[in-house]
Amino acid sequence: MRLGELFKGNIPVVLAPMAGVADLPFRELVCSFGASATVSEMISSEALVRDSRKTYRMLACSERSNLIKIIQIMGADPKNMAESAIINETLGADVIDINMGCPVRKITSNNSGAALMKDENLAMKIVESVVKSVKIPVSVKMRLGWDAEHVNFLNLAKKFENVGAQMLVIHCRTRNQMYCGKANWSAISELRDVLKIPYFCNGDIKSSDDAIRAIGESRADGVMIGRGTLGKPWLLKQIMEFLRFKKYTPAPSPEDQYKIIVQHFQNVLDFYGESAGIHIFRKHFCWYSTGLPGSSIFRKTINEVDDLSFIKKCLEDFYSGCFGAIL
Q: What's this model's pTM, rounded to 2 decimal places?
């Protein structure tokens, strides 16, 4: 059982499943620095069962990484979810993760994502159906509840454990909070006293200090980090080394950051093709350049052109201007 590999000696630090971000190029980049595991983008069970070519591309896994492959699936139909899990197991997934945490209206309006927390019977049927359909471990990612009046993660966690889930990840906000306010890490500390399976803390972990506090307050077995990695794919490595050696690891030098961006950009172009790759990478240019002098002008410039050579020259000029003749 590969899930057990996560808990051999060190506190696990896992990349979260971010829609439109955690594609293969980004997961490979994070893995190149270091991670306990990565999770795929959220995969629609219905689309996968319908044999969607776009959905299959989202499942792409690197042959260069020996990390545990966690594939997250989303849906509200137990049968489709089970069939999707079987497909993913056949394709080489090591763990199936069930999404019960996505807060966006497009997903919850279809009774998927965090909306499943409002229907505990359906949520339990889905987990049980997926567990019975595959031989690999099944995990669930959820929130504290739908809103402040319906905080039911504790009750659901125990039910999921009883029907065979082997790991849980809790984003420490309700659905109605979306990503606003501060994640309440301490809210999930009660799980330590009622669960036998491991659970991870998720939400607002953007530094090594955050990770230490999150683990202490939540009493969790590990952390899952998403938005903190935007523009900082090396963050998981920094946190892992801090948890392991109690030392702060500096971010890559400006010169190395430039090389990282160039390689990431090229990998996205290779994966999606030039036209799509340019459009997809614009958000990454934004995240990488945040806080640097002249970043607003840089972003405006590259967001208005589709010429690859011009974009690469703008990138080089921007970083040269920020850090001097380093390139």
A: 0.92
Q: Which of 31, 102, 172, 201 is catalytic?
A: 102
DSSP codes joined into one string, 91-141:
TT-SEEEEEE----HHHHTTT-GGGGGG-HHHHHHHHHHHHHH-SS-EEEE
* Domains of the chain with bracketed CATH: 2-245 (3.20.20.70), 254-323 (1.10.1200.80)
pLDDT of 289 > 70? The answer is yes
Alpha carbon of residue 307 to chain centroid? 31
Query: Is 102 one of the annotated active-site residues of the chain?
Result: yes
Residue of 200, 204, 201 lying closest to 178 (CA atoms): 204
Share of the chain above pLDDT 90, in %: 79
pLDDT at residue 67, as a whole number: 76
